[in-house]
């Protein structure tokens, strides 16, 4: 059954000759001439991919490619009937505009890239949600790359975003990353780059961070106020600012309260589950184990809780524990984990807003925004009631 492409009529259709090898039809109701597109069927051409182009729409309607292009862009020189016919055919053929081609024509892709180190925990997904809440209303699409804590994958991700001609990039690096040399390609190409959360020294770019030092200090201070005196730190990689600043906050809190710093109570992990477990066991196996542990993040602190409980260690009476990041699991584990909450939504929104500002105005100088954390006290550290 042949249906008019303009009015949808099926009972007033007549054949009207052959045009360019295709049967042409005439709708007597609306006086519209049209041809049916010769669509490939999955059964006969299952091995061929074809994405509808402007040429396909032009061929189906027997009009010029430029007319289709102007109609799709809403030019005023295209009459309403033609524009509607083009839009109807575009919908019928599942036409999607070629964003890369449009970007080349406008010298802008309206696409930004986001590079994060992992999706195992909820931290980065929540930040991405905040980022998209700013990017999408501004007319930007988002390409999300996950590096899986691999420097090699992170380098590959930067290459993919360069090849995709993104207008800007926001990134948080892996635990393996010790320099930002592979990010310099964006600066050389004039593509704005904003770093967040996990950063390394070496590039003069805008940054959005939380006050890791202050959060760590207050977390350790809370343990001291609970009567803890032998406080250990399950520390993060020192090539990352987040690891350095949380260690510095831990050390300064001990010194300010005149508590000794013991080297054996500082154990490093690479932010993986197995590494955190090994570090926790190392601390708990000491001849004189700690009476409390400040974890570099919640996943490390949660692994410590699980190992301690498996050994019959009472939390918090024998071992008080504080984490950092306020993962959703932190409120569900027993006992609930005391932690430092980070403003994830604000991190994502601020990071992308910085990026969009720099995309629109390349004269903006790099700036750093440092956001505060909030101490969330739960049962894992509450000795004094």
Describe this structure in words.
Residues 52-106 form the HTH lacI-type domain. This protein has 385 residues and is of the alpha/beta class. It folds into 4 domains: 1-38; 54-97, Orthogonal Bundle (434 Repressor (Amino-terminal Domain)); 107-210 and 344-371, Rossmann fold (3-Layer(aba) Sandwich); 212-342, Rossmann fold (3-Layer(aba) Sandwich). The N and C termini lie far apart (80 Å). The model is unreliable at 39-47 (pLDDT under 50). The protein contains 12 helices and 15 strands.
Largest sheet: 6 strands, parallel
Mean pLDDT: 88
Count of beta strands = 15
Number of helices: 12
For the record, give the distance between the C-alpha atoms at the N and C termini, rounded to a whole number: 80 Å
The backbone outline, from C-alpha atoms, is elongated
Order of helices and strands: EEEHHHHEHEHEHEEHEHEHEHEEHEE
Please state how the strands of the largest beta sheet are arranged side by side. 5-4-6-7-8-14
CATH class label of the largest domain: Alpha Beta
Structural class by secondary-structure content: alpha/beta
Helix content: 25-40%
CATH topology of the largest domain: Rossmann fold
CATH architectural designation of the largest domain: 3-Layer(aba) Sandwich
